[in-house]
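Re: [ENG-882] Designed sequences occasionally contain unexpected residues at chain ends

Forwarding the minimal case from QA. Structure tokens:
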């Protein structure tokens, strides 16, 4: 405790702050073992105004300041000292979206977050123009949609960026962005660690056609990679962060990053042929590629690691929500029967029954946990569905094996696209609610994806910890190694985790289940047509 007190008092601690969709979180870490030593948080919510999901600038600053003050309270309570200096700071936030400013730094339009889907026309046109998938939530989609809509502010734009880039700019004066976050603004050329020049030229032709007084290069933040110096905390920035005026300016800041990049860092999934799968309400896989994908796949988002390696992101809207609803049905039965069982035990009982006694192919039972539409399988709306053969063995084990399998059905189809591109995966790290019952979700996923799946015994501190690690990596003592080397040899060298390998029977069973899953998608589409609200 005295050592940690001295680290803080001497200004050697490292700070990471991430703006999530519902919470801003700060994590202070020890520069020696990189473990969290203090935390702070602030709850916030987006607003739906004028048809856009947004946060006000005041929301950003009051939230950041309250989060930092909450951190200071934790430091005071634990160590009895104040933070006057820091070794380095990192900021991360939700990726994508649109924050536009004029030459005097005035905001030109309300902040439009990743959640807005008003850019369908722009995203489709840019995807066709580039022959590279441009999702609706990307910043370039928002900018181009504003141009297509001929919004009044568009001729005045001098700079546009993401939320992390905006906060970093105001604290340092530097208009820069980490390459992982920049990859959610505009496509990146990983060989040059910069925006793709071919696509820039094509977009600039669109700007000429619209007679706009700038090129895209003039508007975008400068791209930096992990480990680079992204500026220092100014006196004005120190006051913005710490309203008490105690924090001194001058400390190093790392490149601001997006939440996908910090998630990869926090799970040590930044090396080639590694990936991580987050499985909860929705599910997404991030796989670090040996080379860029050769073909256009509208189901796959192409972003990068914080050090610029190409990453394929496969995202499915549905994972555990309907699975949880089935567990809830059994909980209702237990209540009706006056049988007491806590939720954790109920999940464990049902999941282990599925794993231990369920047929890997679920004996012909097919379920779709589609509470919402699913882009990968082209299902426009949610209709949870159950179907089975008359001779299927309809028991708890097979029913829940089917629900576990189907939670991975869409993501497996997306991963098959990567397989068609000869993408190799040596190691996947799983995290999220699907893995709470030890060994079950991990085993099902290993079989579903035919890949070893690791689960860490400690969940870490999420994205705020991830950006704190990037802030640590930016210091001179650490960035002599590559980012994967730094994480492997310094941060995760003693990390505990468990690996489960796929089994031949499990792989074959899931493949058979998936055949039926694909064949019956027509039934799911008919359910959407026939079951109307």
């Amino acid at each position: 405790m005295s050592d940690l007190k001295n680290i803080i008092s001497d200004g050697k601690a490292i700070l990471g702050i991430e703006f999530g969709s519902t919470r801003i979180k700060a994590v202070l870490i020890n520069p020696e073992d990189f473990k969290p030593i203090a935390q702070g948080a602030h709850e916030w919510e987006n607003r739906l105004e004028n048809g856009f999901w947004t946060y006000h600038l005041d929301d950003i600053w009051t939230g950041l300041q309250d989060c930092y003050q909450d951190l200071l309270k934790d430091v005071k309570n634990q160590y009895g000292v104040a933070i006057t200096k820091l070794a380095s700071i990192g900021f991360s936030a939700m990726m994508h979206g649109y924050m536009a400013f004029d030459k005097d730094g005035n905001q030109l339009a309300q902040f439009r977050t990743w959640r807005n889907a008003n850019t369908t026309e722009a995203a489709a046109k840019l995807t066709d123009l580039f022959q590279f998938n441009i999702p609706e939530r990307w910043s370039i989609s928002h900018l181009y949609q504003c141009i297509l809509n001929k919004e009044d502010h568009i001729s005045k734009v001098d700079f546009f960026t993401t939320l992390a880039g905006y906060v970093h700019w105001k604290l340092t004066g530097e208009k820069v962005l980490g390459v992982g976050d920049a990859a959610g603004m505009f496509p990146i050329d990983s060989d040059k660690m910069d925006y793709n020049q071919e696509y820039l030229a094509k977009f600039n032709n669109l700007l000429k056609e619209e007679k706009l007084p700038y090129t895209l290069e003039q508007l975008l933040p400068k791209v930096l990679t992990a480990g680079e110096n992204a500026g220092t905390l100014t006196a004005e920035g120190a006051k913005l962060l710490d309203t008490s005026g105690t924090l001194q300016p001058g400390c190093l800041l790392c490149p601001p990053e997006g939440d996908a990049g910090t998630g990869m860092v926090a799970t040590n999934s930044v090396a080639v042929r590694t990936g991580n799968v987050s499985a909860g309400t929705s599910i997404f896989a991030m796989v670090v590629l040996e080379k860029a994908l050769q073909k256009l796949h509208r189901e796959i988002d192409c972003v990068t690691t914080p050090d610029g390696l190409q990453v394929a992101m496969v995202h499915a809207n549905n994972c555990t929500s309907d699975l949880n609803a089935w567990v809830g049905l059994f909980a209702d039965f237990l209540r009706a029967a006056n049988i007491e069982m806590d939720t954790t035990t109920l999940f464990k009982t049902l999941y282990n029954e599925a794993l231990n006694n369920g047929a890997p192919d679920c004996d012909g039972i097919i379920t779709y946990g589609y509470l919402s539409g699913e882009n990968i399988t082209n299902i426009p709306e949610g209709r949870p569905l159950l179907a089975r053969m008359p001779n299927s063995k309809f028991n708890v084990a097979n029913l829940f094996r089917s629900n576990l399998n189907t939670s991975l059905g869409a993501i497996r189809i997306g991963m098959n696209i990567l397989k068609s591109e000869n993408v190799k995966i040596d190691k996947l790290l799983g995290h999220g609610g699907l893995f709470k019952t030890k060994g079950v979700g991990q085993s099902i996923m290993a079989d579903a994806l035919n890949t070893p799946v690791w689960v860490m015994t400690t969940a870490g501190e999420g994205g705020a910890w991830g950006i704190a690690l990037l802030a640590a990596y930016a210091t001179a003592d650490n960035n002599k190694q590559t980012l994967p080397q730094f994480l492997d040899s310094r941060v995760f060298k003693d990390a505990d985790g468990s690996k489960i390998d796929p089994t031949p029977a499990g792989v074959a069973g899931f493949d058979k289940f998936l055949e039926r899953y694909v064949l019956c998608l027509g039934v799911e589409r008919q359910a959407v047509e026939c079951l109307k609200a």
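QA comment: On inspection the terminal residues look reasonable. The chain has three domains: 2-259, 268-316+412-498, 321-406+505-530. Proposing we downgrade this to a documentation issue.
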